[in-house]
């Protein structure tokens, strides 16, 4: 497959996709979109009808949703070694989608001031925020990386949630979280991706 385009905004979850693209060493083009503008234009809605970034188009095929993008790129670029081995597969998928489901929902609701009652906790997939935090803390403490002893695509996704959560106060700065992030933030791909998005953000703000 040839031709890979990232649709993103540097002040979005697109930073996760950019980090993953840098990790796999893919050649890609970038389309920067603006909130309330090009992100809602017909041209992009034909790519992602949700009008949300990130999205990637690879060889004419569209992938949206950050967890899916990370898993897809790990499989599409196996030479990067970021897809799970057989013994890592259960934790890889479990914690990647735990972050995509319970973690994101719990953090979003808390940020919006939505606190489910004890009866409502049976209805929401995450139950309650404090339990999600405790489970996530245990997950990042079990191994050096989320699926075992080596870095995988699941760490890009889970690590991004922990990174932003602790940075913006939606997750507590627990020792386990900070130790986990210490193994991620200096990765060359993360440093490159952050620099590219920071430069793009500065350019958009100056325009």
Structure explained in plain terms:
The protein is an alpha+beta fold and 207 residues long. It has two domains: 4-81 and 189-206, Glutaredoxin (3-Layer(aba) Sandwich); 89-186, Glutathione S-transferase Yfyf (Class Pi), Chain A, domain 2 (Up-down Bundle), CATH 1.20.1050.10. It has helices at residues 14-24, 42-45, 66-76, 89-111, 129-142, 153-168, 175-182, 188-206; strands at 4-8, 29-32, 55-58, 61-64. It has a four-stranded mixed sheet with strand order 2-1-3-4, covered by helices on one side. Helix 3 (66-76) packs antiparallel against helix 6 (153-168), helix 4 (89-111) runs parallel beside helix 6 and helix 6 (153-168) packs across helix 7. The protein is globular, with a radius of gyration of 17 Å. The N and C termini lie far apart (35 Å).
Please give the structural blueprint:
Blueprint: E1 4-8, H1 14-24, E2 29-32, H2 42-45, E3 55-58, E4 61-64, H3 66-76, H4 89-111, H5 129-142, H6 153-168, H7 175-182, H8 188-206
Parallel strand pairs: 1-2
Antiparallel strand pairs: 1-3, 3-4
Helix pairs in contact: 1-3, 1-8, 3-6, 4-5, 4-6, 6-7
Order of neighbouring strands in the sheet with most strands: 2-1-3-4
For the record, the CATH architecture of the largest domain stands as Up-down Bundle
| Mean pLDDT across residues | 96
Radius of gyration: 17 Å
Shape field = globular
User: End-to-end distance, in Å?
Assistant: 35 Å
Largest sheet: 4 strands, mixed
Could you list the spans in which at least 5 consecutive residues all have pLDDT below 50?
none
Question: Strand percentage, roughly?
Answer: 5-15%
Order of helices and strands: EHEHEEHHHHHH
């Amino acid at each position: 497959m040839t031709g890979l385009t990232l649709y993103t905004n540097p002040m979005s979850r697109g930073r996760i996709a950019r980090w993953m693209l840098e990790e796999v060493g893919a050649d890609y083009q970038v389309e920067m979109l603006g909130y309330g503008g090009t992100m809602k234009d017909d041209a992009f809605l034909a790519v992602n009808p949700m009008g949300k970034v990130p999205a990637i188009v690879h060889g004419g095929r569209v992938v949206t949703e950050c967890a899916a993008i990370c898993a897809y790129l790990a499989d599409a670029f196996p030479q990067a070694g970021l897809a799970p081995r057989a013994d890592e597969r259960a934790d890889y998928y479990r914690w990647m989608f735990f972050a995509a489901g319970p973690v994101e929902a719990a953090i979003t609701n808390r940020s919006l001031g939505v606190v489910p009652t004890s009866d409502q906790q049976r209805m929401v997939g995450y139950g309650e925020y404090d339990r999600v935090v405790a489970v996530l803390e245990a997950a990042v403490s079990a191994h050096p990386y989320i699926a075992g002893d080596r870095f995988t695509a699941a760490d890009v996704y889970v690590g991004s949630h922990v990174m932003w959560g602790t940075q913006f106060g939606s997750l507590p700065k627990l020792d386990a979280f900070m130790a986990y992030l210490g193994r991620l933030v200096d990765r060359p791909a993360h440093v490159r991706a952050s620099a590219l998005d920071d430069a793009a953000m500065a350019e958009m703000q100056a325009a």
